[in-house]
Design brief:
- By secondary structure, this protein is an alpha+beta fold.
- The protein folds into 3 domains: 12-209, Aldehyde ferredoxin oxidoreductase, N-terminal domain (Aldehyde Ferredoxin Oxidoreductase,  A, domain 1, 4-Layer Sandwich); 250-429, Aldehyde Ferredoxin Oxidoreductase Protein, subunit A, domain 2 (Orthogonal Bundle), CATH 1.10.569.10; 446-516 and 548-614, Orthogonal Bundle (Aldehyde Ferredoxin Oxidoreductase Protein, subunit A, domain 3).
- Helices cover 42% and strands 12% of the residues.
- It contains 27 helices and 17 strands.
- Strands 2-1-6-3-4-5 form a 6-stranded mixed sheet, with helices on both faces. A 6-stranded mixed sheet has the order 8-7-12-9-10-11, with helices on both faces. The protein has a 3-stranded antiparallel sheet with strand order 13-14-15.
- Strand 4 and strand 5 form a beta hairpin.
- Helix 12 runs parallel beside helix 14.
- The longest helix has 21 residues, at 549-569.
Amino acid sequence: MSEFPYKGYAGQYLEVNLTTGKIVKKILPKELAKAYLGGTGFAAKILWDRVKPGIDPLGSDNVLVFATGPITGTFFPPSGRFMVAAKSPLTGIWGEAHCGGHFGPEIKYAGYDMIVFEGKAEKPVYLYIDDDYVELRDASHLWGKTTRETTKSIQEELGDDSIKVACIGPAGENKVRFACVIVDFYRAAGRTGMGAVMGSKNLKAITVRGTRSITVADPDKFFELAVDGLERETKSKLGLMAQESLGKTGTPSLVELENEIGRLPTKNHWTGTFKDADKISGETIRKKYRTSRESCFSCGIQCKFISHVPSGPYKGTLSGGPEYESIFALGSNCMVSDIEAVLHANMLCNEYGLDTISTGKVISFAMECYEHEIITKEDTDGLDLTWGNAESEIQLIHKIAKREGFGNLLAEGVKRAAEKIGKGAEKYALHVKGLECSGQDPRGQYSVGLTYAVNVRGADHLRSLSCYEELGYPDVAAERYGSDKAEEIMNLRSPKYKAMVVLDLEDLYAIVDSLIICKYGTMWPPIYYWDDFAKIIPALTGIKEYSDIEYVKKVGARISTLRKAFNVREGLNRKDDTLPERFLKEPMPEGPAKGHTCPLDIMLDEYYELRGWDKKTGLFTRESLEKLELSDVANELEKRKLLT
């Protein structure tokens, strides 16, 4: 196999046909690295080329990609991540999930940049990788096991408790549409149902052990940049802020902050303030339930913690986190103020392999339907779904994962569940494009509304959320966009300049998700920016074009646009770039954002205009695609009459 010309990459990847059992090692195309960088960029190109529109996401025609980035496995902080992508069984469009821990670097050390799965195995299997040795092994004895049991069983079977495992639990096996992939016991590639895709392919797990090294193009420069990055994360003004919040309590530190600014989702996003926020806060967890601190690979922030409940009805609960998004979804969102119940619910989601956000949101949807008597105990298997009923929440998690009774309906996600229930239930199904809303409220922060609406995954914050105004970084906003714009940008409830910021961050995060580094460093706190990546990427890879900031921006825009094109080819347009009625028409009832709704159309028009897309349809023009060197995409969309 000829040597790959760029550094940072392993230079090869695996093609696994689960139907035939054939595994092929292929050289990574250098053009792919140059044009799409890695991670999300690689997945975007592969899924565009191989996934035909209209296929069943849970069918054998779907393609599943596990991808790393060129920085994965290096000592640059924080660079221990990988991503998973496929057509989403929850939304029917672009599906993507990211995860930290140590699994991603191990793939690189084994000598692979990504793994591409096609087809469906006849019986349960897992993929075993030990450097050059790769094979599919029988996983029938693992089917039905939780993610913890699966990981331990594989490690015992292979006689190595350090081998890395990515697996699904019963939720993925049962094809719950928001099932996730779990690594390192507590880390989740959470959203859009990638665990269900694995389950549909009878793929129980991937296990990997690697002993190779990674070389970089300019070791001295890269070392200098990595040390500088660590200094920024730990000793700079922004880094010290991160250590005080993330380093002290992890993402749960957001609970009280979001409550203060009036956008902590409460009662199925009915309001943005929770009177018992202090009971489920990061500080409460730190003082009463934390047992240890962990870190993802090569991270200076180290925001991961382990929680344990020592006594009471949930005695023995032990799990990672929970993260802010899990606390809101299973806590304030359902009006559950019993933090021990939230910790237990979080553990169950990890064990079953369930996305905590979608799980909490389908339960809060059911609770609101119950409140309005759209459903009754006859529908819920006798469960009392009044707000705050923690025991019913926990029972529903078991039912959802096993697809038992009422849980079978909720396992479809809020969009499908609402359609099946009818009787006005759609009003309480809080989603965008089929993906349940994450832990933000567009009425409390307008840029969230635009982020949700244009997001290729749906109602998700991780592809373009602005933290400038959310967390208070006026100096950074002024430096990046101009002091004349900073005041409006920092105004949580002003639509002005929000399109410019969301677009910029959408493309920036596309680079982040392709390189791949953690959002903590680029999103919160906002340490790295375009000029930093124009130094980091060429020192890492030796691809000279990336030393040009405009080229880096072009690649970011190309990746963002190709993912959007995937959705356009599935039939989406401007009508789908919208928000739930609650955010558009129901004023926030209380708190700092009282009386506000989200003025989406103003921001959306400006966003399309800045992108060069048609404002009426939300579709591309040929010119907007060709300037990103996506003429082949333009040609295909034109044949389908999907260009303006």
